[in-house]
Amino acid sequence: MGGAAALAVSIAGLTIHVMTAPSPRKLLLGITGGIAAYKAAELARLFVKAGWQVQVVMTAHATEFVAPLTFQALTGREVRGALFDPQHEAAMGHIELARWPDAIVIAPASANTIAKLAQGRADDLLSTLCLATDKPLFVVPAMNRLMWSNAATQDNLALLRRRGVQQLGPGSGSQACGEIGEGRMWEPEQIFDSVSAALGQTKDLAGLHAVVTAGPTREPLDPVRFISNRSSGKQGYAVAAALASRGAKVTLISGPTQLPTPAGITRIDVESAEQMLGISLAAAAEAQIFVGAAAVADYRASSVAPEKIKKSGEAMTLTLSKNPDILARVRAAQPALFLVGFAAETEKLAEHARGKLEKKQLNLIAANWVGAGKAFDTEDNALSLFWPGGEAEIASASKAEVARQLVDRIIALYRSR
Ligand SMILES: Cc1cc2nc3c(=O)[nH]c(=O)nc-3n(C[C@H](O)[C@H](O)[C@H](O)COP(=O)(O)O)c2cc1C
After folding, report:
1. Strand runs labelled E in 320-389
2. Does 50 or 282 have the greater pLDDT score?
3. Which atom of ligand 1 is nearest to the CA of 36?
4. How far is the CA of 79 from the centre of ligand 1 (A)?
5. Ligand 1, atom 13: closest residue by C-alpha
6. How distant is the alpha carbon of residue 188 from its chain centre?
7. Could you give phi then psi for residue 179, rounded to 5 degrees?
8. CA of 110 to the centre of ligand 1 (A)
9. Beta strand 209-214 pairing with 289-292
């Protein structure tokens, strides 16, 4: 498997640890004939962006849904599909192709291909490769809810799991066929995170406990209304997933979001800033790293009406009270904690972020531009990082990729304290 290699050399009694350049990791991405094949393009892009070499193999039916040229353009490699292919057999034949990757991911995996794998059939390139490899195999099912719940599909997957095949998903929700139920392919970022985690990134945070707050808060006005903001929680959830993939025990304190809980993470749901503060203080007492990514409301209603507020005059005045500053309170309670804040700014980003870094005695602050379609409830993000004595940029990328780079920085700064 790829990754940075460490070489220890002893010179004159001193041991010098040399890190060699990481070799790119290799993924064989199998794509089968399902509607979700279009999402495989985003999955390929995520792996390529993270430095993987990606070789796509499509079944004949997959090419009915998406053109191979899409994947060729994204991966820079010719897409393979034919089993009997004299030109490729002379160069990288099917057996070499089966040996080449660090892992095989089939996304989407059709009910048909899952059945073929369970039976050990080898009647096209993808199924032959899967039979001729000893590399980790991930299947990502995607199909109509009745195909999914069919006993044949369930038995086939149970058999594959017993043989060590790793099944990712499916999720549930609205389906391309117009039905609602289980069988939806996991989102590309979720697949990418799970494969990266399963292939064992360096577990440099093993033994450490990290707490992450994410999402918006809701400050009630009456039993049916609240003040909130546009935060989706995606960046905070991605940070939690990235910390977990590096071996940390992670507690995610989440305001209301629509997001699934990342694998292996303990999630505590809260609504208001005051609830988030209470849980944060308790969790921080057990943690070494705290990342405050939640978009906490600065103000709440001074008094919450016990009954629904009735419509009355043309104008209405709300009296608001300042909410507690969660990061400042966590810092006061835990002076030794490695504390990371987020700053969402619409102007003077660096100046405001540095001000918060100092005022709240943070170890690191991640600032992003918000407003006008930036950051909140979008898929991509970019961050400016500031810490005492340093700064760096994380260029625009998926929130999962931005989270990985942020966690790299957290680890470097945590270690250098
Ligand atoms: C429009 C359309 C959409 C389909 N979507 C799916 C799907 O999401 N999942 C699935 O398992 N099969 C789906 N099928 C059926 C498969 O394409 C079919 O079983 C095919 O034989 C799969 O071949 P493969 O596994 O070799 O790619 C769909 C078929 C059509 C016509």
Report:
1. 320-322, 338-345, 364-369, 380-387
2. 282
3. 8
4. 19
5. 34
6. 9
7. -90, 170
8. 6
9. parallel
C-alpha 44/C-alpha 188 separation (Å) is 9
In words, the CATH class of domain 26-198 is: alpha beta
Name the fold adopted by 209-301+319-415: Rossmann fold (3.40.50)
Nearest partner of 31 among 84, 1, 70, 2, judged by Cα: 70
d(CA 243, CA 354): 24
Distance CA 179, CA 156 (A): 23
The average pLDDT across 267-290 equals: 97
Same fold, 26-198 and 209-301+319-415: yes
Mean pLDDT, residues 131-145 taken together: 95
- Rounded CA-CA distance 157/194 in Å is 18
Question: What average pLDDT does the segment 361-369 reach?
Answer: 96
Tell me, yes or no, if 130 is annotated catalytic.
no
Q: Give residue limits of the domains in the chain.
A: 26-198, 209-301+319-415
pLDDT digits (tens, 9 = 90+) for 31-66: 999 999 999 999 999 999 888 999 999 999 999 999
Catalytic residue among 41, 115, 177, 320: 177
10 burial type by CB count under 10 A (0-12 exposed, 13-18 middle, 19+ buried): exposed
Q: Which residue's CA is the nearest one to ligand 1's atom 16?
A: 33
The span from the CA of 385 to the CA of 363, in Å, is 11
| Averaged pLDDT, 240-266 | 90
Q: How many Cα neighbours within 13 Å face the side chain of 125? A: 28
pTM of the complete model: 0.57
